[in-house]
Input
Amino acid sequence: MLYWNSDRKTVAGAIRPGEESCACMKKENKILVVDDEKEIADLIEIYLKNEGYEVEKFYQAAGVLECADAEPVALAVLDLMLPDMDGMELMRRIRQRHFFPIILLTAKNQETDKLNGLTLGADDYMTKPFEPLELVARVKAQLRRSTRYNALCPAGTGDLPQEEISIRGLTINADTHKCFLNGAELDLTPLEFDILLFLCRNRGKVISSETLFEQVWGEAFLDNDNTVMAHIARLRGKMKEPPRHPKYVKTIWGVGYTIE
Output
């Protein structure tokens, strides 16, 4: 499977780097593309611009944080192998300041690298070589999820009842997208919030990894056990849950996850 096309003219309707899309560019559609392989970064830019996204492209880590701080960013596509900084470290620094979705690109096909990335805060990953159209589909899926997460109650609906679930010191509000544990607010990513909310809504039920992935990620499962496991581990870490004896999100081995 190829991850770039040497004949750019064969990309139907594509926009070459530097050209301006006829589609309306919105700041909330800005995507950061960070990859030290110029041809790959340029190809990703072509496909994303062809879908109407605004793209800020970097061949190294320098300047990425400043760009993310300067204007709203919808999503980042981040390569792990960068010349001036480890991609994991760059992602960690981004996560300290921002919660937009991050899709990792890696040439490494080891499960530990993928799990480390997901544990540090990535929302998805792709292994090189990859199909550009699949990357575009994953970008769209992450943005749909992020949009749902950020869609707060419309103005003027403050008197309407809100969905708030409380379980032994854990309070999660589906309308305000806020979660508190023993009075302290948890800094959750959109995926972590959605996982916890889904489990709370189904309190007492054991939810399989397949069901959790399809309901929260909104995609077909296709053997994504490790993806779910990594996000559960990160969620437990933020809740300061003991790994072997968690109080809230419990593992039922061979079956799934539950909150009792």
Observations:
- DSSP finds eight helices and eleven strands in the chain.
- Confidence is low (pLDDT under 50) at residues 1-27, 152-161.
